[in-house]
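Bumping my old thread because nobody answered last time. Still need a sequence for this structure:
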């Protein structure tokens, strides 16, 4: 009953002192708006693009031990052998996992008298058991500008980017010659027909990468039937990739392999997400302090204007504790109103930009390499709204503590005579 009494008093005061109440509501709403937008833009941005990338990239990779650290595209002395047997053993541990063998090497792509040095991926685009396309390669298959993607694992040919096509002045159905040193140190070449031209939007993929069928790459590099440079793993949930190496530890040791999850492979991006969260937290605290100081100043002025009313309540038998409680409940009501308004507006803005996004220039895209689109999209989640709502609601309450401390020494006689 007492709480209800304080609440009625608080609502009466909010309506009685409209001007000050509106000021406090506006400041609180702006704080909630800024905090919610920061959450959706900074944290949401990195998490959204991390998840989007992981939907169309490798969840984990397996290499021969030492291959990844050496970071040489043609480290042919560190090949994975018996890869079909390895895939079978890993699937016995995790039946739902999809594993794709890949051969990666630096090649020279030649058309007439023009040539270009690229990283070539020899791939097996479809899972042999389900015949489903590996999600790792959807970044290419979904971005075909002309021609087509591989129709099956036996389909031969080469996929190049629109950038490569313009540099070599070629088109679909033209033939390219791929030159490279094979694993024996000899110079070798294969001729392949262009079956498709893609544009992913990612600079490294569009300017440095081409794709061929895995058998053509084996022929070019002189690989045996059971040899590849890496294995790509796709899980039904990418979070399973972290720590999966412990489950297949005996297999890795048996074949002298190393396992890298997406957290290892996307180290820079994962680090960016963590720094983004820290940056957001710092901004969060800065805006909280600014909002608190602004609200504290307004509350102090408001209370000084109400000294006589406070004196009247004290003369009627209200204790200072009861008066303080009434004012704190009043601040909580104002905080809830302001936070609700700010969060609703913030959610609306986040929703708008999650659909239409912010335009991003080409120069900015080169700095933020993990963004392929021409726009940046925010993310709207309830998680990004709860914390700003709670903090914004409580800021007026905490901001009132100092003003209450300032007026606590004023006597009833001083309060009643205050002008």
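Sorry it took so long. Here it is:
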């Amino acid at each position: 009953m007492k709480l209800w009494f304080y609440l009625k008093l608080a609502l009466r005061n909010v309506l009685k002192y409209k001007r000050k109440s509106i000021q406090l509501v506006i400041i609180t709403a702006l704080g909630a708006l800024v905090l919610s937008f920061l959450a959706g833009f900074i944290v949401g941005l990195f998490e959204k693009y991390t998840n989007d990338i992981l939907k169309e990239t490798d969840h984990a990779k397996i290499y021969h031990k030492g291959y990844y650290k050496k970071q040489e595209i043609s480290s042919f002395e560190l090949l994975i052998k018996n890869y079909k047997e390895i895939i079978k053993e890993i699937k016995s541990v995790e039946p739902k996992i999809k594993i794709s063998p890949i051969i990666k090497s630096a090649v020279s792509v030649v058309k007439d008298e023009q040539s270009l040095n690229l990283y070539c991926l020899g791939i097996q685009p479809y899972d042999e058991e389900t015949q489903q396309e590996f999600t790792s390669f959807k970044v290419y298959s979904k971005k075909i500008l002309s021609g087509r993607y591989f129709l099956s694992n036996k389909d031969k040919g080469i996929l190049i980017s629109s950038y490569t096509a313009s540099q070599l002045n070629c088109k679909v159905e033209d033939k390219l010659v791929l030159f490279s040193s094979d694993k024996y140190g000899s110079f070798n070449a294969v001729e392949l027909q262009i079956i498709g031209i893609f544009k992913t939007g990612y600079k490294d993929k569009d300017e440095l990468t081409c794709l061929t069928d895995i058998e053509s790459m084996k022929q070019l590099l002189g690989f045996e039937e059971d040899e590849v440079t890496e294995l790509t793993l796709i899980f039904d949930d990418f979070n399973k990739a972290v720590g999966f190496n412990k489950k297949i530890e005996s297999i890795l040791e048996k074949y002298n392999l190393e396992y890298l999850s997406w957290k290892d492979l996307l180290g820079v991006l994962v680090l960016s997400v963590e720094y983004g969260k820290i940056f957001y937290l710092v901004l969060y605290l800065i805006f909280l302090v600014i909002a608190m100081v602004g609200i504290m100043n307004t509350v102090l002025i408001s209370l000084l204007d109400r000294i006589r009313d406070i004196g009247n309540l004290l003369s009627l038998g209200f204790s200072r504790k009861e008066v303080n409680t009434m004012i704190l409940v009043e601040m909580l009501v104002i905080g809830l109103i302001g936070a609700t308004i700010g969060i609703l507006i913030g959610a609306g803005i986040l929703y708008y930009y999650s659909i239409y996004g912010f335009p991003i220039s080409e120069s900015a895209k080169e700095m933020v390499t993990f963004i392929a689109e021409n726009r940046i999209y925010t993310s709207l989640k309830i998680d990004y709204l709860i914390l700003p709502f709670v903090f914004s609601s409580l800021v007026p309450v905490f901001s009132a503590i100092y003003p209450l401390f300032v007026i606590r020494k004023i006597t009833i006689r001083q309060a009643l005579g205050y002008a």
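Residues 181 and 187 are 4 Å apart (CA to CA). Let me know if any region looks off to you.
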